User: Fold these one by one.
Assistant:
Number 1:
Amino acid sequence: MKKTITNLKDIENKKILVRLDLNVPIDNKKIVDNNRIIQSLPTLNYLIEKGGKIIIFSHLGRIKSESDKEKKSLKIVGEELSKLLNKNVIFVKKTRGKELENKINSLKKGDVLLVENTRFEDFINEKVTKYESSCDGELSKYWASLGDVFVNDAFGTLHRKHASNYGISINIKEKVIGFLVKKELEVLEKIKMNPERPFVVILGGAKISDKVGVIDSMLKIADKVIIGPAMSYTFRLATNHLVGKSLIDESKIEYAKNILKNNSEKIIVAFDSIAVKEINDDKNQELKSYEEIPDDYMGVDLGEKSIKLIQDSLKNARTIFWNGPLGIIENDKYSNGSKEILNSIVNLKNVFTVIGGGDSGLMTKKLGLEKRVSYISTGGGASLKFLENKEMPSLELIEDI
Ligand code: ADP
Ligand code: 3PG
Ligand code: MG
């Protein structure tokens, strides 16, 4: 058991650095789903009540250009957090420097300050710098120097070795996990150590390069692994099918071939897809399923036959872990596959279902089914890495009690 905030003796008037995962989906300058913010409240309220001076760090999206910075400021997240905490959150537009230091020094007990998106450190003056994402030593030391204690409650980024989690941890003496990380680890531990079988894993979503590598490990712990869009297109290509303009990762084709060759019994790949010419087209395009996707078409949702195949494969499941929507669910038109599968899952009896990931959680919520699954994890990549038994760098630095 890791040390948690309830093991901290002195909080009053201490500067508490808190890493949260406030990486929420934003559309048109509006937060589409505030779940990650809500899940961070117990830790924040506890620290406020105990009279800490709270300094929050979080990333938002990935920053690869100046224009990304305009879209990915944490300012509106700070406003939402103010509302939810019912108290003013001081937002500092900078990730380092005098203004930040002065504001931190003038905090009173119970005050909350939010630092700008930590990944703004990844792109500075027109250059890719990756100070945050490559865990730059100087930045890590600097951030750690701003506080007395570190609370890591960013479950969604536990698998990352970045300056704002791993970097602060190695440079600060006292560090603990928060309530969210504790809760997440308890649920996922149950699936990892002792899942009721059959245990079925469903993988979809867009972060193919990040996540395709976990299939190997999932095949070891699960009885069946289902690969849906957009992950499936790399596998379809590996077996010489046509995928048109669908999302793929060319560097993983050989890996996909080997996986399929060695695990034909356990692995199920969605074989048909709804495909369209233009994703954001207002014209009423026909939504048709293809097994072979034409050249200028892109797969956007799970196809009719694959819906049936997946529903059949889930029938006897006693444990289900699902990461990654099975279509571009931001558009209602392409949500049908995810909806059908989720609807059949919530109607299964005696099954423990965990949905993992920001977008997958949002999908469940959008369909109004969040109360009918056993647990929604705030981490996609992180929950997969945890189940995989892979190193969670930021977690390992926190002592056990
Ligand atoms: P999570 O946040 O649950 O971990 P990911 O971030 O890996 O999941 O993937 C979610 C994204 O995957 C969504 O933005 C969705 O639009 C995208 N996606 C799903 N299916 C497709 C597809 N067929 N083509 C392109 N993107 C897809
Ligand atoms: C997530 O959305 O999975 C987490 O916030 C981590 O984001 P990342 O994959 O960009 O590190
Ligand atoms: Mg996501």
Number 2:
Amino acid sequence: MQRVFSGIQPTHGIHLGNYLGAIRHWVRLQEDGRYECIYCIVDQHALTALHDRRAMTDNTYEVAAALLACGIDPAKSVLFVQSHVPAHAQLHWVLACVTPIGWLNRMTQFKEKAGRDRERAPLGLYAYPVLQAADILAYRAVLVPVGEDQKQHLELSRDIAGSFNRKFGVDFFPLPEPLITGEATRVMSLRDGRRKMSKSDPSDMSRINLTDDADRIALKIRRAKSDSIRGIWYDPENRPEASNLLAIYAALAERPVAELEAEFRDTLFADFKTRLTELMVEKLAPITRRMREYLADRPHLDRVLAEGAERARAIATPILEEVYDIVGFLRPGRRET
Ligand code: AQP
């Protein structure tokens, strides 16, 4: 059975971009039946940006509740928190030792997130893609469903896996494949159609959170940037905002963009926004309601995550031991011949 791995940071609650770009596909793969799915709340990655104990804890619960509400079923998928499985950090170090710095220097996410003051950026932010490779390779996963923004990091994970195999003369790690699919692989900000919808955007009006109620969704869509052209069609170069909202509609409705272009060819932007709001509320309200129920029962979430971590450790620990053997680390208490 092929193994699938993906992760999400608890830097904030989940937004529509995370849902349409990634989590919806996680659920599909889980239900497909052909894969062993491993889904991780990557709190160690979040630590590169979030230095607030309370927020880290609350966000981790919120993301866990959101994933369950979206349809991740702990009986079918392994759902756990990254820091509960030490193999991620341990493998990270081994992989860091086979990753040339030049590869990391090319990572655009580091450049964007570190900004101009690169000298003061934490080492963790720079090493982030190596930890991401460790997350995937700790399970020898082959398929990684992600949004388009993670494409470059996934290519690096493949390079790192290849580098390890070459340096130690083994064929141990498979080269993981990104799975970037659907009508909304890169959901853009509601305030600026050229920027990605993101948890770290300071403006809450830029994104739809899975915790937003119907009134808040309606307000955000009403205020979303628009243009004064009649009719809605897909042209990201010239009409980024209209194109983004159309792609969101297509993804939520599970209908092709081309079909919707024909339907909305003469529709006023304001009327299109009303239709989008109705659809979004219809699709997201049940998730939000379930999420609140899960959030009200933290002991249940603790149990789910503890069981998930146990299952994850059972897969990752023997893989890490094999890696340690390959690089020649002594096993404690075992005499090498
Ligand atoms: N705007 C997006 N459109 C489509 N997919 C997206 N993803 C994120 N934003 C979009 C996908 O969601 C998964 C989890 O993302 P993440 O939490 O690991 O971090 P990220 O990609 O850095 O997302 P954010 O929201 O921008 O977080 P911050 O602001 O904390 O960095 C990934 O599969 C991602 O591709």
